[in-house]
Predict the 3D structure of the following.
Amino acid sequence: MIELTTDNLRDIIRENPKVLVQYGATWCGNCRLIKPKFKRLAGENEGITFVYVDAEKFPNSRGLANVNNLPTFAAFANGNIIKEVAGSKSEILTQIIDEITNH
Protein backbone atom coordinates (compact mmCIF):
# COMPACT_ATOMS: atom_id res chain seq x y z
CA MET A 1 0.00 0.00 0.00
CA ILE A 2 1.21 3.45 -0.90
CA GLU A 3 0.47 6.28 1.53
CA LEU A 4 0.75 9.61 -0.25
CA THR A 5 3.39 11.98 1.07
CA THR A 6 3.03 14.40 -1.86
CA ASP A 7 -0.02 15.41 -3.87
CA ASN A 8 0.80 13.04 -6.77
CA LEU A 9 -2.13 10.63 -7.07
CA ARG A 10 -2.61 11.62 -10.71
CA ASP A 11 0.89 10.26 -11.50
CA ILE A 12 0.21 6.98 -9.68
CA ILE A 13 -3.06 6.52 -11.60
CA ARG A 14 -1.30 7.23 -14.89
CA GLU A 15 1.53 4.76 -14.14
CA ASN A 16 -0.63 1.84 -12.88
CA PRO A 17 -3.46 0.16 -14.81
CA LYS A 18 -5.62 -0.55 -11.72
CA VAL A 19 -5.64 1.70 -8.67
CA LEU A 20 -7.85 1.58 -5.57
CA VAL A 21 -7.81 4.67 -3.37
CA GLN A 22 -8.97 5.18 0.19
CA TYR A 23 -9.62 8.83 0.99
CA GLY A 24 -9.48 9.48 4.70
CA ALA A 25 -8.37 11.95 7.37
CA THR A 26 -6.55 11.74 10.68
CA TRP A 27 -9.65 12.86 12.65
CA CYS A 28 -11.94 10.27 10.97
CA GLY A 29 -12.54 7.32 13.30
CA ASN A 30 -14.11 5.13 10.62
CA CYS A 31 -11.16 5.84 8.32
CA ARG A 32 -8.75 4.64 11.01
CA LEU A 33 -10.86 1.51 11.62
CA ILE A 34 -10.96 0.37 8.00
CA LYS A 35 -7.39 1.36 7.05
CA PRO A 36 -5.83 -1.89 8.43
CA LYS A 37 -8.32 -3.93 6.35
CA PHE A 38 -7.46 -1.84 3.30
CA LYS A 39 -3.76 -2.45 3.94
CA ARG A 40 -4.31 -6.20 4.39
CA LEU A 41 -6.29 -6.41 1.14
CA ALA A 42 -3.45 -4.58 -0.62
CA GLY A 43 -1.19 -7.52 0.20
CA GLU A 44 -3.76 -10.04 -1.04
CA ASN A 45 -4.61 -8.47 -4.43
CA GLU A 46 -1.79 -8.47 -6.93
CA GLY A 47 -2.33 -6.31 -9.97
CA ILE A 48 -4.11 -3.55 -8.04
CA THR A 49 -2.20 -0.60 -6.61
CA PHE A 50 -3.69 0.44 -3.26
CA VAL A 51 -3.24 4.07 -2.22
CA TYR A 52 -4.20 5.91 0.97
CA VAL A 53 -4.83 9.65 0.54
CA ASP A 54 -5.29 12.10 3.39
CA ALA A 55 -8.13 14.07 1.81
CA GLU A 56 -7.32 17.21 3.81
CA LYS A 57 -3.60 17.32 3.03
CA PHE A 58 -3.81 16.61 -0.71
CA PRO A 59 -6.57 18.64 -2.40
CA ASN A 60 -5.46 17.89 -5.98
CA SER A 61 -5.59 14.16 -5.31
CA ARG A 62 -8.94 14.56 -3.55
CA GLY A 63 -10.27 16.36 -6.60
CA LEU A 64 -9.86 13.24 -8.76
CA ALA A 65 -12.99 11.75 -7.13
CA ASN A 66 -16.21 13.06 -5.56
CA VAL A 67 -15.20 12.96 -1.91
CA ASN A 68 -18.12 14.23 0.16
CA ASN A 69 -17.88 11.77 3.05
CA LEU A 70 -15.00 9.89 4.64
CA PRO A 71 -13.90 7.29 4.08
CA THR A 72 -14.49 7.26 0.35
CA PHE A 73 -13.06 4.59 -1.92
CA ALA A 74 -12.40 5.22 -5.60
CA ALA A 75 -11.38 2.67 -8.23
CA PHE A 76 -9.46 3.70 -11.34
CA ALA A 77 -8.80 1.53 -14.40
CA ASN A 78 -6.54 2.67 -17.22
CA GLY A 79 -6.59 6.24 -15.90
CA ASN A 80 -10.38 6.53 -15.61
CA ILE A 81 -12.52 6.45 -12.51
CA ILE A 82 -14.88 3.48 -12.66
CA LYS A 83 -16.43 3.39 -9.18
CA GLU A 84 -16.78 5.56 -6.06
CA VAL A 85 -18.24 4.39 -2.79
CA ALA A 86 -18.43 6.10 0.60
CA GLY A 87 -18.64 4.05 3.78
CA SER A 88 -16.65 1.96 6.20
CA LYS A 89 -18.08 -1.55 5.86
CA SER A 90 -15.62 -4.17 4.65
CA GLU A 91 -18.24 -5.43 2.14
CA ILE A 92 -17.71 -2.15 0.26
CA LEU A 93 -14.06 -3.04 -0.19
CA THR A 94 -14.90 -6.50 -1.49
CA GLN A 95 -17.40 -5.08 -4.00
CA ILE A 96 -15.06 -2.40 -5.31
CA ILE A 97 -12.15 -4.87 -5.61
CA ASP A 98 -14.39 -7.21 -7.63
CA GLU A 99 -15.39 -4.31 -9.87
CA ILE A 100 -11.82 -3.17 -10.56
CA THR A 101 -10.60 -6.75 -11.05
CA ASN A 102 -13.26 -7.42 -13.67
CA HIS A 103 -12.85 -4.12 -15.47
About this structure: Residues 2-101 form a domain with the Glutaredoxin fold (CATH 3.40.30.10). The chain has one domain: 2-101. The first helix runs from residue 9 to 15.
